[in-house]
Write a structure and sequence with these properties.
- The chain is an alpha+beta fold and 298 residues long.
- The protein has 9 helices and 10 strands.
- The strands form 2 sheets. Strands 1, 2, 3, 4, 5 and 6 form a 6-stranded mixed sheet that branches. The protein has a 4-stranded antiparallel sheet with strand order 8-9-7-10.
- β8 and β9 form a beta hairpin.
- α1 packs across α3 and α3 packs antiparallel against α4.
- It is globular, with a radius of gyration of 18 Å.
- The chain binds alpha-D-galactopyranose.
Length: 298
């Protein structure tokens, strides 16, 4: 390992395939054009210099997964914490690519997933770390979380990926995420109704993307939201209200809760020429993203 190093990794948006990664399902995330950059050098103990508190346990956990000696790490990030584009995955993958740039991208994603699980006690799936490591500019990744086989699916520039912070912030460790995972693993019928229908929606969404049928893509987002709200029960009244507002906005193809849920963020797909009026209609900050290359994309 060089004595000093740097790394950079993007956040992610998940287009569709929510709460299925840890069950070995298929998901459709994309890396997005907001990046976390880190620099580091060997030190007597692990330390972090960052505007965002709480990163030390992530940095140490990924370093230990990579068998790295202690490092002093500095972070600058455009990935807002708690905004739903996986600032934790961006931090983990940025450190991994800085410390182990030659590593296989899948192995790096797996090391980052284990690090996140160790740092938080939350049994997260592989999706976020995988997208940050291996996303492709201009594309989403159709990822089979059972085999880690994936295909890139072209994603149109004229569709903006809008991420809206609900303002309801939570650390996943304080949510029923692990409980939902256990319920789904135990094949609870209501939870499985979400899982089975969501897996079908992922494939339908990919078909619609290939056909450039943005209206159909939006309908599938709406169906996904209803399923996450009613069957998987990970939405909240505040999130539902923002999703309803997005659905009505001019230029919006569709919207849904994104990521783990229990508050957090909303994804909307918006006609790129209508982003300004969309943000006005929402009346709250909207992050408009485009797809980006992952840290290990080559
Ligand atoms: C979080 C986890 C992911 C995934 C989503 C829900 O973002 O980190 O692994 O389980 O929730 O789809």
């Amino acid at each position: 390992m060089p004595s000093s190093w740097r790394g950079k990794a993007p956040g992610r948006a998940n287009l569709i395939g929510e709460h299925v990664d840890y069950l070995g399902g298929v998901v459709l995330p994309a890396a997005v054009d907001r990046f976390t950059e880190v620099t580091g050098h060997g030190a007597d103990e692990w330390s972090i210099d960052s505007d965002v508190p709480g990163g030390l346990r992530y940095v140490r956990a990924v370093g230990e997964e990579l068998n790295a000696a202690p490092q002093a790490v500095s972070v600058t990030s455009q990935v807002p914490p708690n905004a739903g584009i996986s600032s934790s995955a961006a931090l983990l993958v940025a450190v991994a690519v800085g410390l182990a740039p030659q590593m296989d991208g899948k192995d790096a994603a797996l090391a980052c997933q284990r690090a996140e699980q160790k740092a938080t006690g939350v049994q997260v799936g592989i999706m976020d770390q995988f997208a940050s490591a291996l996303g492709r500019r201009g594309c989403a990744l159709l990822l089979d979380c059972a085999t880690l086989e994936y295909q890139v699916v072209p994603f149109p520039d004229e569709v903006a990926i809008a991420v809206i912070d609900s303002g309801e912030h939570r650390s996943l460790a304080g949510t029923p995420y692990n409980q939902r995972r256990r319920e789904a693993e135990a094949h609870d019928p209501k939870r499985m109704r979400h899982v089975d229908s969501e897996l079908a929606r992922v494939h339908a969404f990919v078909d619609a993307l290939h056909a450039r049928d943005f209206t159909r893509m939006g309908e599938l987002l709406k169906e996904s939201h209803v399923s996450l709200r009613d069957d998987f029960e990970v939405s909240t009244p505040d999130v539902d209200a923002i999703v309803a507002c997005a659905w009505k906005a001019d230029g919006c193809y569709g919207a849904r809760i994104m990521g783990a849920g229990f508050g957090g963020s909303i994804l909307a797909l918006v006609d790129r020429s209508k982003t300004r009026s969309f943000a006005q209609a929402l009346g709250r900050p909207v992050i408009f993203c485009a797809t980006a290359d992952g840290a290990y994309a080559r």
